[in-house]
Amino acid sequence: MPAPRRVILASTSSYRRALLERLGFPFECADPRTDEAPLKDEPAGQTALRLAEAKARSAAPNFPDALIIGSDQVASCAGERLGKPGTHLNAVKQLTALSGKTANFETAVALLDAKTGKIRSRLVVCRVTFRSLSSETIENYLRKEKAYDCAGSAKSEGLGITLIERIDTEDPTSLVGLPLIPLTALLAEAGMPVLG
Question: Are 16 and 72 contacting, i.e. CB atoms less than 8 angstroms apart?
Answer without folding.
Answer: no
